[in-house]
Design goal:
Blueprint (H helix, E strand, L loop, with lengths): L1 H14 L4 H13 L3 H12 L6 H13 L3 H14 L7 H13 L3 H14 L7 H18 L9 E4 L9 E8 L2 E9 L14 E9 L6 E3 L10 E7 L5 E7 L5 E9 L2 E2 L3 E2 L11 E9 L2 E8 L9 E6 L10 E2 L10 E7 L4 E6 L9 E8 L2 E2 L3 E2 L10 E6 L5 E6 L15 E6 L12 H7 L4 E4 L18 H10 L1 H9 L4 H38 L3 E9 L6 H21 L6 H4 L8 E8 L16 H4 L3 H6 L1 E9 L10 E3 L3 E8 L3 E10 L6 E7 L4 E5 L9 E9 L5 E12 L4 E11 L1
Parallel strand pairs: 24-25, 28-34
Antiparallel strand pairs: 1-22, 2-3, 3-4, 4-5, 6-7, 7-8, 8-9, 8-10, 11-12, 12-13, 13-14, 15-16, 16-17, 17-18, 17-19, 20-21, 21-22, 23-26, 24-26, 27-29, 29-32, 30-33, 31-32, 33-34
């Protein structure tokens, strides 16, 4: 047996020595079996012989997309569309290139690509591709405009390894003191296998108790049949029946029901043909009471829908018979899949997921008010519940204090890529421990969108100057910085080969997308919200801190950060033809004022590990770590000169810490200094980490005015790989009530 396993493990490596034709054959075989990760390994090896073959590039890009490696898929679709700009060979390469850009959160670029898709398919104005392109262009516009989130109402956290694994976990819901969920995992082979064997994977339903959440186990074998996939469980309203989906190995799915009582499960029965229509898939059941009637909601691709999987519902008449299923209607269902229904009878709201309605990603979670027969227009659940990745399977507990959803967003556990696999995430609506503050609530809300971090090219703006002001706005500096992105790619990847060169280029693109571009998006939102508050007559002070790389002496860096802050002020002066000018010049009719506290730190906060050798420009200028230092941060907004107000104020010198490159398994830690710059004692109520890989300690005593406490965070990289961005939320009896901290790192195996 050991010899057999060894042969299996070595098989991929042996194949790497084969001809390109053989490698493509192996890859195609894996793809036909649904093993796209395995297929990608062979396609990648085949590309070494001919990296310009557009047909092979397309196959590789498709395999990457289908196992959710969005970054790499986007990179290789881009190679295809550069070779085939008119879309004559692979029209859908442009389609998927646009989709991958959106998955990666690059909404502006995605919108441009969707415009290209629209032009390619212009002859078929009513065809799916054209309609989808139009819809996605609107979605990208929505995403760029809608950076507001629910931070004031909820906190999203990643469930730890006591539930989530490097496989896929999904469809979580609570029953009594238990959490039920489904998981797809290999039941026969060890975790060290490089290549998937899809037939070895079976989906099972698991449960875990709150009393001992470190233990979860498969529920009764009468439910989890070894011959089928079993998933998407739910109880009926009086918790006497358990509905779930059962799918065969050909992915034909039907809904089953099992009677339940005193821990005993009856043999499951398939629901009648009226529900499980022959020749179609019926899945994702949810049972609820609406106005004293019991309803079964589900997803199905039966005839009569809007397109693909739709949401349907029927009445459960006497516990064993069902009315004819009805489509939930055009306001809910679309040309794309509309799935994962969950109805909250207390709120009268249907939650579901869709890839069509205007959203941030692939699948977004939506809510729609109404009841069967009359549903209104869906509303996006917004960030942080939704992301640019897939978000679905939303449920809420009976008390309405917490919910659960499934996502493959960054931070999920993985082996094959950061977004390969689904994990379960928790939404906490409990505001216990947060006291209402007798200060400006609207400003406190505005602080929840901070920090806004803006990045600059080396020595810009106003290079080689000792001036403290500049005539240009930040948007001019931003546009000039973006023009240098190709130069950053080339300089940072210079001298590297093959995968290392590609990784260096992707690293730079990631920096510009997730840091430089995000800074502008955050600034645009913040500016609109700030203008709203000034319109109410508020006197507001904005605290801005500056940072710089260590290439120049401290005096120069201090003046440089002042120039960068000056470009931000100029941006506000130019915004919407001078809307902010009366507030900045203190002559607004409503007596509102806008002032700045400018704190230029210069070299004092620079990372000592970054090269200060001018002649080593790859590491001193074009290095990602060096680029991260060249920034200013809008850190706090507050009432200007609050002489009569008494409150604690959170002030954190640097809200972001980059650990740099780490080896998998390392445990590192960092301490954030938390200073109380208010005139009342500061109490930290809670500190919440977005993932279970972080251990947190903090000052539990009252932090007196002028004194400094701490938040210490340790990061365990044992289950992490690749680029990491981990957020920590401080909840305090202070102004603002919440403060977000960010840890970044790049973890190597």
């Amino acid at each position: 047996m050991k010899l057999k396993l060894l042969i299996i493990l070595l098989f991929p490596l042996l194949c790497f020595g084969q001809s390109q034709k053989q490698l493509i054959k192996y890859a195609d075989k894996n793809a036909s079996l649904g093993d796209f990760y395995g297929a990608s390994i062979y396609y990648k090896q085949a590309l070494r012989s001919d990296s310009s073959n557009i047909h092979l590039l397309y196959k590789y890009a498709e395999s990457l997309r289908k196992y959710n490696n969005y970054d790499l898929a986007s990179y290789y679709y881009n190679k295809i569309v550069e070779k085939d700009k008119a879309g004559r060979i692979y029209k859908d390469a442009w389609f998927w290139f646009a989709a991958m850009q959106k998955f990666n959160g690059d909404y502006q670029a995605s919108m441009k690509s969707w415009k290209k898709v629209k032009s390619i398919y212009k002859k078929n104005k009513k065809g799916y591709e054209t309609l989808k392109a139009r819809q996605e262009m609107m979605s990208c516009g929505f995403a760029m405009r809608s950076k507001s989130d629910l931070t004031d109402a909820c906190v999203v956290t990643h469930l730890d390894t006591n539930i989530n694994t490097t496989n896929s976990e999904f469809s979580a819901f609570t029953y009594s003191n238990e959490l039920f969920f489904s998981s797809l995992r290999d039941t026969t082979m060890g975790a060290e296998l490089n290549i998937d064997h899809p037939n070895n994977y079976k989906i099972k339903i698991f449960s875990s108790t709150k009393k001992d959440s470190t233990v979860y186990e498969s529920i009764d074998s009468t439910i989890n049949s070894q011959q089928f996939h079993n998933a998407n469980g739910c109880f009926n309203s009086n918790e006497t029946k358990f509905y779930f989906t059962r799918c065969d190995t050909l992915n034909h799915c039907e809904i089953y029901v099992s009677k339940y009582g005193n821990g005993i499960w009856s043999k499951p029965k398939v629901l009648p043909a009226k529900v499980n229509e022959k020749g179609t898939n019926t899945t994702q059941p949810h049972v609820t009471m609406i106005e004293d009637k019991e309803y079964l909601f589900f997803s199905s691709n039966r005839v009569g829908g809007q397109g693909g999987l739709d949401i349907w519902h029927c009445e459960v008449l006497d516990g064993d018979t069902y009315s004819k299923p009805v489509n939930a209607g055009k306001t809910v269902n679309t040309l794309d899949p509309d799935i994962c229904p969950y109805y909250d009878p207390k709120e009268g709201v249907l939650y579901f997921s869709s890839t069509w309605h205007k959203g941030f990603g692939g699948f977004d979670i939506f809510k729609v008010k109404g009841k069967p027969g009359k549903f209104h227009e869906p509303e996006n659940m917004m960030q942080p519940i939704n992301s640019s990745w897939n978000d679905f399977y939303y449920t809420v507990n009976k008390e309405g204090t917490e919910g659960f959803f499934t996502s493959n967003r960054l931070g999920s556990f993985f082996k094959k890529g950061p977004t390969c696999c689904n994990d379960i995430w928790k939404v906490n609506f409990d505001k216990e421990g947060i006291e209402e503050l007798q200060i400006i609530e609207t400003l406190d809300d505005l602080n929840k969108y901070l920090p806004v971090t803006l990045y600059f090219h080396n020595d810009r703006p106003g290079p080689r100057s000792l001036d403290t002001i500049v005539p240009i706005s930040y948007m001019v500096a931003f546009d000039r910085y973006k023009e240098l992105q190709p130069k950053y790619r080339n300089e940072y990847s210079k001298g590297l080969k093959d995968n290392k060169e590609m990784e260096a280029r992707l690293d730079i693109d990631d920096f510009f997308k997730h840091y430089v571009d995000k800074g502008v998006s955050d600034l645009e939102l913040f500016t609109r919200l700030l203008l709203e508050e000034l319109g109410k007559g508020e006197k507001i002070e904005v605290v801005v801190k500056g940072f710089a790389s260590p290439l120049a002496k401290t005096e120069y860096n201090v003046n440089l950060t002042k120039r960068r802050i000056s470009s931000l002020v100029n941006y506000l002066r130019e915004y919407e033809n001078g809307t902010f000018i009366p507030y900045l010049d203190k002559n607004a009719e409503n007596e509102a004022e806008l002032t700045f506290q400018k704190i230029p730190f210069g070299e004092y906060t620079a990372n000592a590990s970054i090269s200060d050798d001018y002649y080593d420009q790859r590491n001193s200028i074009y290095n990602r770590s060096a680029a991260l230092e060249r920034k200013i941060e809008i850190q706090t907004v507050r009432q200007a000169n609050p002489k009569d107000s008494v409150y604690a104020e959170i002030n954190i010198n640097m809200s972001t810490h980059d650990f740099g490159k780490l080896k998998q398994g390392q445990i590192v830690e960092y301490t954030f200094d938390v200073k109380n710059t208010g005139n009342k004692g500061l109490s930290i109520k809670k500190v919440i980490a977005a993932c279970g890989c972080s251990t947190i300690s903090f000052t539990e005593e009252i932090i007196k005015p002028g004194e400094t406490g701490f938040v210490n965070v340790s990061l365990d990289t044992s289950d992490l790989s690749g680029k990491q961005v981990k957020s920590i939320t401080i909840i305090a009896d202070a102004f603002p009530t919440t403060k977000r901290l960010v840890l970044t790192a790049e973890v190597f195996e």
